[in-house]
């Protein structure tokens, strides 16, 4: 399921580094895209602002201009990472959650893949977390009441048939494209029988919508035991599909299996727009030191291109990254190395 | 924070094996308690019913009689594990969630401890997950609407100051009793600024309620990165305190670090009642085969006794379990051994 290569004259890629190490890894991803040259159309990059630092400067974490340019002038985008205030700040809310919503990027696709020491050996971990990206507790409908017993806060968790069906389709399509054709539905319907019950039933029912899905095998797991088994026997998973919050937790958990959050890419995908985003956060503790791992962002750029059907360009970037990771000469500290961000980028670009 | 040893004439322990392997591991826990003899008062066991099989038989997963006897005649209880129907079944709802609520067992305390090869070496993993046990999404307020776009389901997530404060106190007290005196507050307030914001602020504010907490150091983690770091560097954690659902996921994740869910105990604790419960599920696939790991239930029995201040009895049980696990001669298949449940129980009882 990808946005088949249109006869695009030009690629306009919005770049939103946002906060912290986003400002180092998004330029790295840009450099990698520039290196693929003629396997993609003429490319223009548009620098855009969002994030906590933007909020501190202009009072809005997601300026209208950013949204408008993304909607009107861009085919796709790369988002870095965002810092959060340590206390609730009036008027601030996460720009990445808002962007997923305004651009209707309803799927968050997070492939987690270990690099095997030898290119001919299959990787030990090879799974995709497909995370619903627009609802669940992320609708952010919250209220606070003051009662005689103190404060009471409530949040709404929304699960719809519509959103569950489209994320289910995306997950089935991704499973179909992989050799194992296996899908695990994640839920907690032993407690949330209505909301997670709806998610589970709806995703399962996708199999009946189209005969092409008939060979996909379906399993399911409660989210708590899914995390347990992910740590104990990751090889049981191929594609996992989950409501928003479980998907958030599961993809971080899966990242722990492959050495570092610094290598795990994602795309936020809708039917007509795709935005690459490394799974890691803004890591303010290492900001500006030229030691952030650029791999997650570079792989996110490849995943974004792959989603737009620029398979060859994506393959070239991924192969270059794998070769550098496998070789172990240029690894950042999170992977046990001592290379600088810029050295890793140079090594990757040379091989693209 | 424990229910100091009252001059109890007698211990009346409710036994609720419930489903699956619960029917094997709860009798094992009973045997272990019987073995401690004079370190606890005269003990009576009361067999009680609950669970999916009970539901199938009498139409109610938690019969009134069970609740009444627990409330009126028992000092404490042991609960096994419960199976869930694979589809929503009218009238069925989880008896463990209901029991926690009706007995106001507001804290779920889950120590996760690895057994070091040598009794003098500190364990590699030694942490406690303190899970709020009465609210969050577990209030089970859900509704389903049929709209022109299909079904829409909503669940309410409730976080109150009252419940956050009492679980916070429990966590601070547990941290105080440990050498590191360190507490990590788990939340996702970058998305749930109102509900998780309230949880975070309230737990933090417990430190100001009493000067005795002044030496406890406090850290915090977003739940997604908490799971990631739990896997990568479990030694950063001492006591973790979390809202209900995050605590459910975190304690399963932590269990993966110590080899098997089959060794991780918990207690559901209120101010006047405590119920031991292994963290594992009902494992219908291995039911009746005499291969379920009894360690989690036996440790849950010890934890229950410890919580009632029968420290010597609890220490004797824990030491016997540790010695059997360390020796590796009697391990069930989940730990890589080939011992039967009954052989493990015999080996433990001999050493109590
Ligand atoms: C920054 C935060 C709002 C975000 C999320 O929870 O979605 C992040 O954890 C992620 O996974 O992209
Ligand atoms: C069986 C289920 C309702 C329960 C829970 O989610 O609390 C279980 O996973 C647990 O951790 O005790």
UniProtKB/TrEMBL annotation, chains A, B:
Database matches in Pfam families: Iso_dh (PF00180)
GO terms, biological process: isocitrate metabolic process; lysine biosynthetic process; tricarboxylic acid cycle
SMART domains, sorted: Iso_dh
InterPro entries named in the record: IsoCit/isopropylmalate_DH_CS, IsoPropMal-DH-like_dom
GO CC, any one term: mitochondrion
Domain Isopropylmalate dehydrogenase-like, residue spans: 12-348
Keywords noted in UniProt: Magnesium
Top-level taxon: Eukaryota
Keyword field contains Magnesium: yes
Xref: SUPFAM superfamilies: Isocitrate/Isopropylmalate dehydrogenase-like
Gene Ontology molecular functions: homoisocitrate dehydrogenase activity; isocitrate dehydrogenase (NAD+) activity; magnesium ion binding; NAD binding
Protein family: Belongs to the isocitrate and isopropylmalate dehydrogenases family.
UniProt-listed PANTHER family: DECARBOXYLATING DEHYDROGENASES-ISOCITRATE, ISOPROPYLMALATE, TARTRATE, HOMOISOCITRATE DEHYDROGENASE, MITOCHONDRIAL
Protein name: Mitochondrial NAD-homo-isocitrate dehydrogenase LysB
Organism, as annotated: Cylindrobasidium torrendii FP15055 ss-10
């Amino acid at each position: 399921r990808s946005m088949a290569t249109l006869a695009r004259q030009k690629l306009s890629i919005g770049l939103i580094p946002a906060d912290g190490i986003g400002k180092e890894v998004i330029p790295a991803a840009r450099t990698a895209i520039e290196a693929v040259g003629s396997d993609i159309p003429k490319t223009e990059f548009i620098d855009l602002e969002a994030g906590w630092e933007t909020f501190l400067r202009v009072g809005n974490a997601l300026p209208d201009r950013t949204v408008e340019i993304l909607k009107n002038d861009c085919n796709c985008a790369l988002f870095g990472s965002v810092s959060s205030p340590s206390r609730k700040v009036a008027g601030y809310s996460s720009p990445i959650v808002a962007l997923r919503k305004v651009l209707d990027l309803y799927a968050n696709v997070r492939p987690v893949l270990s690099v095997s020491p030898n290119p001919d050996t299959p990787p030990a971990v090879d799974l995709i977390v497909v995370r619903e990206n627009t609802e669940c507790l992320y609708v952010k409908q919250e209220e606070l009441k003051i009662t005689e017993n103190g404060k009471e806060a409530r949040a709404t968790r929304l699960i719809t048939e519509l959103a569950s069906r489209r994320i289910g389709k995306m997950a089935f399509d991704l499973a179909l494209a992989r050799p194992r054709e296996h899908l695990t539905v994640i839920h907690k319907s032993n407690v949330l029988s209505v909301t997670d019950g709806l998610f589970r039933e709806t995703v399962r029912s996708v199999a009946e919508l189209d005969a092409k899905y008939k060979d996909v095998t379906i399993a399911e797991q409660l989210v708590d035991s899914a995390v347990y088994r992910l740590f104990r026997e990751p090889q049981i998973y191929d594609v996992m599909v989950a409501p928003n919050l479980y998907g958030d937790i599961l993809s971080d958990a899966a990242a722990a299996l492959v050495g570092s959050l610094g290598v795990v890419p994602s795309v936020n995908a809708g039917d007509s727009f795709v935005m690459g985003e490394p799974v890691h956060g803004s890591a303010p503790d290492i900001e500006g030191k030229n030691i952030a791992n650029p791999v997650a962002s570079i792989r996110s750029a490849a995943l974004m291109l792959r989603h737009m059907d620029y398979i060859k360009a994506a393959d070239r970037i991924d192969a270059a990254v794998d070769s550098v990771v496998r070789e172990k000469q240029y690894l950042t500290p999170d992977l046990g190395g001592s290379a600088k961000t810029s050295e890793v980028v140079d090594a990757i670009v040379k091989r693209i």
